[in-house]
Design a protein that fits this description.
- By secondary structure, the chain is of the alpha/beta class.
- It has a single domain, classed as Alpha-Beta Barrel (TIM Barrel), CATH 3.20.20.70.
- Helices cover 41% and strands 13% of the residues.
- It has helices at 31-43, 63-77, 92-105, 122-132, 155-161, 177-186, 203-208, 223-234, 238-253, 264-275, 292-305; strands at 14-15, 23-25, 28-29, 49-51, 83-87, 109-113, 140-144, 167-172, 194-197, 213-214, 307-308, 311-312.
- It has an eight-stranded parallel β-sheet with strand order 1-10-9-8-7-6-5-4.
- The radius of gyration is 18 Å and the shape is globular.
């Protein structure tokens, strides 16, 4: 990080979209689409940008492509908002290499998953954090992704890990509000420890209950919608939050539900961005972009919902 870089916000608050990775073909970035996508997201007033997460298809990309993406995004964002870089890897060495390169490129923070593939106990996880985190050059958010082959950080583990100066928050994609509320209760004495909600269907509820914000995949497409929802919930405007939450749920039931496959959300999101002329819809292998019938359904929903490159043209 350069000496003139702004301090990492404590706590990090607001909407931090997990950006998709625009690709032209297998492991080849779509540089023009990437530039358009970054500007599209930032124009929505977001509070940060998270690259190389699950929606960013990080585990499917080569380390070369990941490093290329970090360089391009950090140079383009140029400190306008904090850039967070995901460390999702089975190799500690490769994760550390990416972390150092991210810091040199001008990133502001890192998002660290539990090590996956090999099963790990909570004691293993805490030992892993105590080994790896001191070697990381930037502030770190932990990342729970329980529907992937990685263990969840238990509340007690998060509490113990929060004593490490470099760990500044957690993004939770468990969709388990009991766990999330237990986490909030455990961290009450550390108000600068950021707790961010992953599933966007729970964004309004989580923020109304004190969450610091959300990492909402749909904000790739409609960043202003999710920013407005966060701000309404943050100021406790229940009526506005309910209206915007209804739109989020409508998106989930229609556009993002074109395919019932596990990869359906990502494929629909990339297809929608392609239909709007923002970036390519190529999906990292082994998955494939939507076929023509599904692409037509995506286009139909975009029209019916009033979604354009400039946002929503009407309230759904």
């Amino acid at each position: 990080m350069s000496p003139d870089a702004p301090a990492f916000p404590r706590p990090l608050q607001g909407i931090v979209p997990p950006m998709v990775t625009p690709l032209l073909e297998a492991d080849t970035l779509d540089p023009v689409g990437l530039e358009r996508l970054v500007e599209h997201i930032l124009a929505g007033g977001v509070h940060g940008l998270f690259i190389l997460g699950t929606v960013g298809e990080a585990p499917a990309l080569s380390h070369r492509a990941r490093h290329d993406l970090v360089e391009r995004v950090c140079a383009q964002v140029h400190r306008r908002v904090p850039v967070l870089v995901g460390l999702i890897d089975t190799s500690v060495i490769e994760a550390l290499n990416l972390a150092r390169q991210a810091a040199a490129a001008g990133a502001d923070g890192l998002v660290l998953t539990a090590p996956y593939y090999y099963p790990a106990s909570q004691a293993d996880l805490l030992a892993y954090l105590r080994c790896v985190v001191p070697q990381l050059p930037l502030p770190v958010l932990l990342y729970n992704i329980p529907d992937r082959p990685a263990p969840v950080f238990d509340v007690e583990t998060v509490k113990a890990a929060s004593d490490m100066p470099n760990i500044v928050g957690l993004k939770d994609s468990s969709a388990n509000m009991i766990y999330f509320r237990q986490l909030q209760s455990a961290m009450e004495d550390q108000p600068d420890f950021s707790l961010l909600m992953g599933p966007e269907m729970l964004l309004a509820e989580a923020v109304l209950l004190g969450a610091h914000g959300g990492v909402s995949g749909g904000a790739n497409l409609l960043p202003r919608l999710y920013v407005d929802l966060y701000e309404a919930a943050h100021r406790r405007d229940i009526a506005q939050a309910q209206a915007l939450h209804k739109t989020v749920m409508k998106l989930k039931a229609t556009l993002f539900n074109v395919s019932r496959e596990r990869s359906g959300f990502l494929r629909a999101l990339k297809c929608a961005l392609s239909c709007l002329g923002i970036c390519s819809d190529f999906v990292a292998e082994p998955f494939r972009r939507f076929d023509e019938p599904n692409r037509q359904r995506v286009q139909q929903y975009l029209t019916e919902l009033g979604i354009t490159k400039n946002g929503l043209t009407r309230t759904t």
